[in-house]
Design brief:
Elements lengths: L5 E2 L2 E2 L4 H12 L5 E4 L4 H13 L3 E6 L6 H10 L4 E3 L5 H8 L9 H7 L7 E3 L16 E3 L7 E3 L7 H11 L25 H7 L1 H13 L1
Parallel strand pairs: 3-4, 3-6, 4-5, 6-8
Antiparallel strand pairs: 1-2, 7-8
Helix pairs in contact: 1-2, 2-6, 4-8
Amino acid sequence: MTEPVTIGTQTLFGSLASITIDRLRAFETPEGYWLAFSGGKDSVVLYDLAVASGVKFDAHYNVPPVEPPEVKRFVMQHYPAVERHYPAKAATVLAREHGMLPTRIVRWCCRDWKEGGGKGRLVLTGIRAEESIRRRSRKMVEQCYRVPSKRYVHPLIDWTAADVWAHIRSRGLPYCGLYDEGQRRIGCVLCPMTRNVEQQMARWPGIVRLWKRMAFAA
């Protein structure tokens, strides 16, 4: 029988959070998890539940050069213990090496900027099946197809956005202010998958200039 899990003054017995904590404890390895932290709402919940579960983990934030500065400031202010990692190569150098900018089909940006680290480890992510058609086919535990020694655990895979926000509000967790401005998901500025291109170009002209330099280099 699962024991009640208390976080602060809130008991999460029988709730989705309690089930997720059980998952974290079930898959824990002796060396602990490599927790992938993005600064988004899902990783905020993941981090909170990892702490509540008592499992061993170290958290890491891969910082893309086109990340909104608001996200960077949020992570630095509220999650100083999260280790930050920066790309080994300049954005223009990567664009030149790939011979192109990232596209919806060839998103080398995700691979080179966001998905590194965790080799030889069990990596915790906050991805959820609800986010996209592609993610609906993901399993809770998966093997990394590029790095054989790396595996993933997605303990929030069956959470909805409503579940995530309910947990954040019930726990009083901090979150990036971009959500309060109407952003449903936060991530790289001018990501190939974005739909609000004009809005982002007006908001972050400095990052637009970086994309133009990358285009010239490619």
